[in-house]
Amino acid sequence: MEVLQFVVLFITCTLATSEQTTVLDVAAKNGATILRRLLNGTYLESLLLSEGNYTLFAPVDDGFDWLPPSVYDELNKNKTFVNFLFTFHVVKGQVESEKFKNDVTFATLHGATKVRMNIIGTTYTADGVDVTLPDLSASNGVVHMLQRAMYPIPTLSLLEYLTTTPTLSRIVEVIQHANLTEFFKGGPFTLFAPMNIAFGKLPDGFLEKLMLNKTGLVDLVKYHVLTDTLFSEGLYDNQRLTTANDKQLIVTVMEGNVVINGALIKGFDIIVNNGVIHVIDRVLIPPN
Q1: What CATH number is given for 158-280 in this structure?
Q2: Within 13 Å, how many C-alpha atoms sit on residue 175's CB side?
């Protein structure tokens, strides 16, 4: 009888062990077969097949269509680049969705770069990408399926991005003149950043006079800033947004265009490590 019980226990444990699957197995079973193929033979694969404890943000196969063709081609031939991109999709330790809050960040395996979580309605987002299926348990962690890969990786801060983008050099000059460089080292922020040509639409002499009025200049800059991260998916018609200087912006959505107080958003969701930037075609003028 004791021998029979031992055999039954052994078979039960063996079956339970065989049913356990790693985060890579779980991801592949739920639509991330391209990710699984790309990781073959990489350092990251060996890590995610180990007995450690990891959180994997896994893009589904259709999500690779969002990548620029040159990036996808590079992933298919360069294992170093595969490790570079997808270490940003892995958090050491098990992070379930109950820990997701607006603007909470988690350190990834990609050096000091963190992934930022937000909640838009009932949808979780990771760096602005929808989490389509959260909390899939694995033997060595948990998997959250993503609508697409998180790319590009937000290694630059908001100011670093602005200063390295020639078409946004005028707003950098205004920020510096307003002595707000230290302010923008904080965050998280959403910045509606006027393109250089937007400043040419201002009345003659307006900006020159404002440059002599430091209080007014600070007011102008902060009127373009929200003190949280708001991705394009969270923008809707007739929405009221409160700016960093406690004023209101109104969102208008019509025929696929998104307008903020009359300024058309020309570029959405430029993700930086302390927020997000939306590029607009006009300078926003605060009331009074």
Answers
A1: 2.30.180.10
A2: 23
Decide if pLDDT at 105 tops 90: yes
Every domain of the chain and the residues it spans: 23-146, 158-280
What value does the mean pLDDT take over residues 48-77? 97
23-146: CATH topology is FAS1 domain (2.30.180)
Please tell me the pTM assigned to this model.
0.90
At residue 17 the predicted structure's pLDDT band, cuts being 50, 70 and 90, is: very low
Average pLDDT, the chain: 93
Buried b (16+ CB within 10 A) or exposed e, 194-210: bbeebbeeeeeeebeeb
The DSSP string of 69-109 is: HHHHHHHHH-HHHHHHHHGGGEEES---GGG--TTEEEE-S
